[in-house]
DNA sequence: GACTGGCACTCGGAACTTTCGAGTGCCAAG
DNA sequence: CTTGGCACTCGAAAGTTCCGAGTGCCAGTC
């Protein structure tokens, strides 16, 4: 059905359209690529490609533009992920290396990704699902107010305040601190519920109400976070390059960026860091984003993904370069996180 | 020069223009407001107002629109800050009350502000300048790697990692932890440098290199943070309501939002929480934002501001309502922070 | 002297028309 | 199967017309 030349034509159309954002005619194609055939032949091929649904005409007397299916075929079969230049790789590592803590890593990553791809970048914070308790600190802020600080294996720090109706004894706090750490250290957050269940009973009945409220708060922090899934966004200014049709292209994206729930669905399940997920136009779950594509991948250790990062851009983006950049950034972030 | 009626006319023009975003003619003005005079009279007044530079004509055969000077006069003399409805106030408190930690307070605030004002909201994180050390925690992550956690009086938590070439003794860590807390607790961050200077000498010569590197990292964290000034942004989707002229109105704002340094300058010095800063159009320090106004105010305790929050929007915004919302949110956030 | 009705004038925007040419599909010939 | 030729289509750009909101000015009125 579609011989090699027709696929070449499709590839050429996608590449040119991505470069110019204007419908591509048969003549222009032949001029810009040495296909070795005449425009008339290309026209026949185009007719076939249109028949198959890979390209379409905005109006009768115009050139062709790729459909979502066309991009899909292009991404799957007609292109290879572009690797970054040595200079770019260096820039990435040196930029990420300067990070001082986990938050900073995420902030830098999002900025970097936006800059390289010139698209809107999205980075999910490493999820607590897989992480474990490294340390729990209990600090007295005032006699009746305690601050709980939870430090996880991937460097994330969570804090909660606990109020108590009576003055709290320092010795009890020290005791509690050491017990909590004994019980929880190294535990997966998801397993913490069971581990904490027995803790109040280790204390004198008089102290149990306080201990119980601390345990409850701690559990809340665990489960809250497992569900919450924080996200960082950057490069929104790149939306200005979408060209015209503000209402249709820019507005929905800007709105989606505000809703982290939507972004999480857009990014999708954290995949293996080796695999790139590309969702083109209508393939993504939101109708308003039908002119938008998502390129995402997981990051974290080699075997299991901690979280997802990616970019959002117009369907007519440069997929090979973008995919290369996303993959590279994911790899380097994984590396940085593994080191620290 | 400008009698009361002329000022009434100006007020009416500003109000109508804010509502319609279209040039206001003399007839329309008389129809919508009961000024008690004929269009011809209003025309004379308009001519005077234009002479004074408060309004201008986009083109000869059109109505008038306010100039930046016109808005300025309106804000300073012709309007009063609009107070929020009881329902709105309730909504604010209940929304903010749900926050679990400082980060959450800021995130909620930015969201809230964007929602109420329907503009782009900016909230500066409470600065560390004024804050003091509440607690310092030193945690062993692996024998040669330590995690420092700094908790400040306003609930902010900073973390840093310190590597050491040799295995570190747990006893030393405990010792160090208690000494650091003794020395620093309650100290202003800005005073910490001097307080920390003597610490290494308290330890055995063999341990001093480790102690010194920890002290250095800690100091870095202090000063880093004092300078850094984090910022949260929200409601970028509200930019879509700017109407047309995307290139001139939306793009520069979107770009500014990416640059936190620019945002900090836009917000300006943290003012007393009682005072609202309004910067209209060209009054702000960036030429590209000449069609944009900023409404900001400080928040924190009654007497001194911790940080600044505000909104960015088109010059033709509804100043009374926006100012009311910004002020109210700042007050409630201050209250929440004071409590915790 | 301040206000008003009347009036001629201006000019941008909407609506319509014209022109232009890139691009097409089809066909007959190579 | 490929190609040159050709008639045809139709959107975009440029030109044209038309309309009326809005203006400034002036003479008359209170």
Q: Helices and strands in order, then pairings?
A:
The structure is a homodimer of 340-residue chains.
Chain A (H helix, E strand, L loop, with lengths): L3 H17 L5 H7 L6 H13 L3 E2 L8 E2 L1 H11 L7 H12 L4 H16 L2 E5 L8 E10 L2 E8 L4 E7 L6 H15 L7 H6 L10 H21 L2 E4 L11 H13 L1 H8 L8 E4 L12 E9 L4 E10 L4 H21 L1
Helix pairs in contact in A: 1-3, 1-4, 2-3, 5-6, 5-12, 6-12
Chain A binds a DNA duplex (30 and 30 nucleotides) through helix 2 and helix 3.
Give a description of the structure.
Two copies of one chain form a homodimer. With 340 residues, chain A is an alpha+beta fold. Chain A folds into three domains: 4-78, Winged helix-like DNA-binding domain superfamily/Winged helix DNA-binding domain (Arc Repressor Mutant, subunit A); 86-127 and 229-339, Beta-Lactamase (2-Layer Sandwich), CATH 3.30.450.40; 132-227, Heat-inducible transcription repressor hrca homolog, domain 3 (Enolase-like, domain 1, 2-Layer Sandwich). Helix content of chain A is 47%, strand content 18%. Chain A has twelve helices and ten strands. Chain A has helices at residues 4-20, 26-32, 39-51, 68-78, 86-97, 102-117, 170-184, 192-197, 208-228, 246-258, 260-267, 319-339; strands at residues 55-56, 65-66, 120-124, 133-142, 145-152, 157-163, 231-234, 276-279, 292-300, 305-314. Chain A has a five-stranded antiparallel beta sheet, with helices on both faces. Chain A has a three-stranded antiparallel beta sheet with strand order 4-5-6. Chain A has a two-stranded antiparallel ribbon with strand order 1-2. In chain A, β4 (133-142) and β5 (145-152) form a beta hairpin. In chain A, α1 crosses α4 (68-78). Chain A is elongated, with a radius of gyration of 26 Å. The model of chain A has no long low-confidence stretch (mean pLDDT 88). The interface between A and B is medium-sized, with 35 and 35 residues. The structure holds a DNA duplex (30 and 30 nucleotides).
